[in-house]
């Protein structure tokens, strides 16, 4: 998701150039970040456009799909925590299983896994069930992207210079060239 959000900021920032009237509230720091590393932003943007865009470029539907895919990945990673620590495959992780599963992990990985499992233990009984992990995974995924990041993602659509409904690679390239020239 970070790549998508970075892309959103980059694309939204480009709106400040030729399309200033389409994104009048574009923060100056976002514009400057794009100008510092335009090729990185462009590579990320092209990946998103080609991955989630259609014949007329990246549309609102494509952005929604990108968000759905990212959230599904977040949910899957959160659920993987249960699989790693559910040593007897009963669909729940007891404190004993958790402690044993932590042994081969690095210090940082142990800390992250414990934090995730503690946060998932909704009833505080020390056992994390599959339902608790699923609920926790949904909470984490639904919080990503946050409201500010989501607004920046939606700002991509303001980059549609030709009015055909989506942002194409050519529109992106031209917009970044104008931004770099300033």
UniProtKB/TrEMBL annotation:
<dbReference type="InterPro" id="IPR011992">
    <property type="entry name" value="EF-hand-dom_pair"/>
</dbReference>
<protein>
    <recommendedName>
        <fullName>EF-hand domain-containing protein</fullName>
    </recommendedName>
</protein>
<keyword id="KW-0732">Signal</keyword>
<dbReference type="InterPro" id="IPR018247">
    <property type="entry name" value="EF_Hand_1_Ca_BS"/>
</dbReference>
<dbReference type="Pfam" id="PF13202">
    <property type="entry name" value="EF-hand_5"/>
</dbReference>
<dbReference type="InterPro" id="IPR002048">
    <property type="entry name" value="EF_hand_dom"/>
</dbReference>
<dbReference type="GO" id="GO:0005509">
    <property type="term" value="F:calcium ion binding"/>
</dbReference>
<feature type="signal peptide">
    <location>
        <begin position="1"/>
        <end position="20"/>
    </location>
</feature>
<feature type="domain" description="EF-hand">
    <location>
        <begin position="108"/>
        <end position="143"/>
    </location>
</feature>
